[in-house]
From TrEMBL:
<dbReference type="InterPro" id="IPR010136">
    <property type="entry name" value="AGPR_type-2"/>
</dbReference>
<dbReference type="GO" id="GO:0003942">
    <property type="term" value="F:N-acetyl-gamma-glutamyl-phosphate reductase activity"/>
</dbReference>
<keyword id="KW-0560">Oxidoreductase</keyword>
<feature type="active site">
    <location>
        <position position="114"/>
    </location>
</feature>
<dbReference type="Pfam" id="PF01118">
    <property type="entry name" value="Semialdhyde_dh"/>
</dbReference>
<dbReference type="InterPro" id="IPR050085">
    <property type="entry name" value="AGPR"/>
</dbReference>
<dbReference type="InterPro" id="IPR023013">
    <property type="entry name" value="AGPR_AS"/>
</dbReference>
<keyword id="KW-0028">Amino-acid biosynthesis</keyword>
<dbReference type="Pfam" id="PF22698">
    <property type="entry name" value="Semialdhyde_dhC_1"/>
</dbReference>
<feature type="domain" description="Semialdehyde dehydrogenase NAD-binding">
    <location>
        <begin position="4"/>
        <end position="105"/>
    </location>
</feature>
<dbReference type="InterPro" id="IPR000534">
    <property type="entry name" value="Semialdehyde_DH_NAD-bd"/>
</dbReference>
<dbReference type="InterPro" id="IPR036291">
    <property type="entry name" value="NAD(P)-bd_dom_sf"/>
</dbReference>
<keyword id="KW-0055">Arginine biosynthesis</keyword>
<comment type="function">
    <text>Catalyzes the NADPH-dependent reduction of N-acetyl-5-glutamyl phosphate to yield N-acetyl-L-glutamate 5-semialdehyde.</text>
</comment>
<comment type="similarity">
    <text>Belongs to the NAGSA dehydrogenase family. Type 2 subfamily.</text>
</comment>
<dbReference type="InterPro" id="IPR058924">
    <property type="entry name" value="AGPR_dimerisation_dom"/>
</dbReference>
<keyword id="KW-0963">Cytoplasm</keyword>
Amino acid sequence: MAKSVFIDGAAGTTGLEIAERLAGRSEFELIVLDEARRKDDGARAEALNAADFVILCLPDDAAKAAVGMIRNDTTRVIDASSAHRVSPEWTYGFPEVVGRETVAAARFVSNPGCYPTGFIALVAPLVRAGLLPADWSYVCHAVSGYSGGGKALIAHFEDDRDIAFRAYGLALGHKHVPEMTAHVGLAHAPIFAPAVVPAHRGMLVEVPLHLSMMAKAGSPAELRAALAAFYAGSEIVTVVDDQPGELLLRASMAPVDTLTLRVLGSQDGSQARMVAMLDNLGKGASGAAVQNLNLMAGLPETAGLRLQAA
Ligand SMILES: NC(=O)C1=CN([C@@H]2O[C@H](COP(=O)(O)OP(=O)(O)OC[C@H]3O[C@@H](n4cnc5c(N)ncnc54)[C@H](OP(=O)(O)O)[C@@H]3O)[C@@H](O)[C@H]2O)C=CC1
Ligand SMILES: CC(=O)N[C@@H](CCC(=O)OP(=O)(O)O)C(=O)O
């Protein structure tokens, strides 16, 4: 029998893309609230309690309130917001890093943030393998397409076509830093420097490394090989061994649910730039939510995902 799924926040950027990925899937049946009732708490509470699976695509406060409206012990929840990403009662929904079986068995799953997906994918396996130190002062630069900021940022960029580059998070303490620190197991919070470019989707997350200044670190080739071994067999995460002259985000990028990792090293091996490329609405949000839903429902993790750009 089909499992029922309620997307709370279905009219938003992330919710719409989840519904697209679930369209035509016979394993799931969507509970849909019409425009007049989608923000009606009574209708939402009914849907939240009727569904086998709830996917929260809401601002943090609304996501917390939605969890509070669930009055049964059966509805399973995937939260796309940052409200529960370091809560001990919640499973961090990064199956490749925490274990697919852990996500499959969880009742409350918190989807990773889009930028943390890139950072954690690059750094966590290497710290775990002892090839990078946990007590280093890491830096993470990143650029995102403007859909990463939901309806409000889409409107900001579509209203002002003259923006070429938007640096933000300038006061530091971005809301993603706690999960980047906690889920890698770092001793110090990384410096996170995000920016937005005038493209609808896509992101590039970079971690530059002074390998020769670290007391103990692998060579660029060792880091790359360790990542390739860690993600071996994944249809979603790929480690590429190449030396490109440039890495481009295309404004015309089509939706895709993959995550591509690179470790680019200097000739003498003293420095490296680790780079993750993904779709903020793919593995960064909606694709990740569907991957987690698949695992929680006992289905193949890539069902309904876009493993190649359309
Ligand atoms: N966009 C992205 O790339 C990513 C987003 N996320 C997270 O996913 C969540 C959703 O983000 P996103 O889709 O981008 O945001 P949007 O602003 O595009 O969508 C949020 C939706 O939630 C609705 N909403 C707000 N409050 C309520 C409420 N009380 N009851 C019902 N619906 C409500 C909004 O309604 P209305 O349409 O009326 O405004 C809107 O449709 C956020 O927590 C975000 O941080 C996570 C990773 C990546
Ligand atoms: C471009 C942009 O504004 N991005 C958002 C993060 C998008 C995202 O990952 O959502 P969560 O915060 O729920 O993880 C930001 O920096 O706040």
